[in-house]
Write a structure and sequence with these properties.
GO molecular function: ATP binding; nicotinate-nucleotide adenylyltransferase activity
Mean pLDDT: 96
CATH class: Alpha Beta
Structural class: alpha/beta
CATH superfamily: HUPs
Bound molecules: adenosine-5'-triphosphate, nicotinate mononucleotide
CATH architecture: 3-Layer(aba) Sandwich
CATH topology: Rossmann fold
Keywords: ATP-binding, NAD, Nucleotide-binding, Nucleotidyltransferase, Pyridine nucleotide biosynthesis, Transferase
Distance between the termini: 50 Å
Order of helices and strands: EHEHEHHEHEHHEHH
Pathway: Cofactor biosynthesis; NAD(+) biosynthesis; deamido-NAD(+) from nicotinate D-ribonucleotide: step 1/1
Domain Cytidyltransferase-like: 7-187
Protein name: Probable nicotinate-nucleotide adenylyltransferase
Length: 215
């Protein structure tokens, strides 16, 4: 059987339990061999609070010790300029070869935004796309751009089919319902709350040690 790698890209400012739930959910659904977590230098988000290095360190702490293999892939922060997923997928595809199943994970908010991504329709040539529900972001056709909804529906397949093919399919996890966002966490920390139920304890310790998200 082909190897299967799940890819989780994100800003992670900071990483939180919603990211862990998204990764773990699809690792189980897909029966994937590895989760690669890729901290980004996002071109659509201004004024990040933690540095790229701090965000990558928090990601490494959060994803340590899970019951499946995890690789923290620093290629996007190493690029040192705003990053596009198309470039990252091309690099990973060149590294792993044509047959490995690559499954890019995202929440419903990014599906609503997918048609703004660089070369978005070419992305399906390089990977599968797996979308999880997220409170506050609908997955119905009215909330997703028409061209994205069409691509998504046409390519929709079971997780086992994604595992058996290299790229080009989509899959939906409608049952994830983690009401957590980095925006809400930053706001809570700024108010002086600890947000302990939303962030892994090791990440909370890191945030406190580095005086992050105070203002
Ligand atoms: N609670 C969640 N449930 C499902 N997916 C999520 C959740 N939080 C984040 N994601 C997904 O994880 C990826 C990285 O998210 P990101 O690091 O931007 O966190 P965020 O909470 O969305 O941040 P912000 O509030 O700053 O926009 C995106 O694909 C996003 O959709
Ligand atoms: O390639 C793009 O144009 C693009 C535009 C928006 C988001 N992305 C990717 O989507 C992932 C989640 O992004 P975000 O902003 O929700 O943290 C992350 O890997 C980003 O690099 C990619």
């Amino acid at each position: 059987m082909n190897a299967c790698i799940a890819l989780l890209g994100g800003t992670f400012d900071p990483v939180h339990k919603g990211h862990l739930a998204l990764g773990a959910h699809f690792m189980q659904l897909l029966g994937a061999d590895q989760l690669r977590v890729i901290p980004s230098l996002p071109w659509q988000k201004a004024a990040l609070q933690a540095t790229p290095e701090q965000r990558a360190e928090m990601v490494a702490l959060a994803f340590a010790g899970l019951p499946f293999p995890v690789l923290i892939d620093r290629q996007e922060i190493a690029r040192g300029k705003a990053t596009y997923t198309i470039d990252t997928l091309r690099a990973i595809r060149a590294e792993v070869g044509a047959d490995v199943s690559l499954c890019f994970l995202m929440g419903a908010d990014q599906l609503q935004n997918l048609d703004s991504w660089q070369e978005w329709s070419t992305l399906f040539e390089l990977a599968h796309f797996c979308v999880a529900a997220r409170p506050g972001f609908a997955l119905d056709d009215a909330s997703v751009p028409t061209a994205v909804a069409e691509q998504f529906q046409r390519r929709l397949a079971s997780p086992s089919r994604l595992r058996g093919a290299a790229a080009g399919l989509t899959c939906l996890a409608a049952d994830l319902a983690e009401d957590i966002s980095a925006t809400a966490i930053r706001a809570a920390l700024q108010r002086g709350e600890r947000a302990a139920s939303l962030i892994p304890p090791v990440v909370l310790d890191y945030i406190e040690q580095h005086n992050l998200y105070k203002n």
